[in-house]
Design brief:
This is Cell wall protein. Keywords: Membrane, Signal, Transmembrane, Transmembrane helix. This protein is α+β, with helices and mostly antiparallel strands and 223 residues long. Among the domains are: 40 residues, no CATH class; 109 residues. Helix content is 21%, strand content 30%. The strands form 5 sheets. Strands 6-5-12-13 form a 4-stranded antiparallel sheet, with no helix packed on it. Strands 3-4-7 form a 3-stranded antiparallel sheet, with no helix packed on it. The chain has a two-stranded antiparallel ribbon with strand order 1-2. β1 and β2 form a beta hairpin.
């Protein structure tokens, strides 16, 4: 074998050696990798999606005020979530309101927020959705988040999202909306004690006057 043949054989061997790693190139876009020492293909494990499973909201009434209590738990083992701020979204299909719930710490946040349109003073309810205080009286209105008292959907949003059941609480002794008043708000039963007492006293006085008149007439007839 001459020198040229030997040189050609060496070059061919070198080219084969360089081409071998190319056969083991990973097709990352297709999610398939071919092993160097064989034709075995495998698919890498997909990252686990973040979840809000176990998160919840509830509605409670405290001193005539509707509150939404919440507990948000984010499970994200592969750190796929791009957010850490929790929001409660309420919608009736036409309107929508977002209530900030806070920033997650170690994947969790809990607390309470007032129902949209509600207000408190000193811990006591002083405002309710769908009601406005004007001219010394409470009046129903289409504003002030009145739509939230109807059929609504709600979901917790962090990234991901989680649908949760939510409904405005019914009127009870612990969660009374106003029904109209000359001064201030009234309880769900209708009339406040400040107004009721003068009416009772006035009625008693009128009854007493009527009794005096009747007795006087009877005496005159006897004479």
């Amino acid at each position: 074998m001459d020198k040229r043949s030997i040189l050609a054989a060496v070059v061919a061997a070198a080219l084969l050696t360089l081409a071998a790693p190319a056969a083991a190139t990973a097709d990352v876009g297709a999610g398939t990798v071919r092993a160097v020492d064989g034709d075995v293909d495998y698919t890498p494990d997909k990252p686990k999606e973040p979840s809000l499973a176990g998160s919840r909201v509830d509605v409670v009434c405290l001193r005539d005020a509707p509150w939404i209590t919440f507990e948000v738990t984010l499970t994200d083992p592969d750190r796929q979530s791009t957010g850490d701020r929790a929001v409660l979204v309420i919608s009736d299909g036409t309107h929508e309101v977002s209530l900030p719930l806070g920033t997650l710490a170690s994947g969790r946040v809990a607390g309470s927020v007032l129902w949209p349109g509600a207000a408190v003073s000193g811990g006591v309810g002083t405002g309710w959705p769908g009601w406005v205080y004007e001219g010394g009286q409470w009046r129903e209105t289409a504003g002030n988040f009145a739509w939230t008292r109807g059929d609504v959907r709600a979901w917790i949003r962090v990234n991901p999202e989680l649908a949760v059941p939510l409904a405005y609480p019914p009127a009870t002794s612990g969660c009374a909306a106003p029904t109209g008043s000359i001064q201030g708000r009234l309880a769900a039963t209708g009339t406040s004690g400040d107004i009721l007492l003068p009416l009772v006293l006035a009625g008693a006085g009128a009854a007493a006057m009527g009794l005096v008149v009747v007795l006087s007439v009877r005496r005159r007839h006897r004479v």
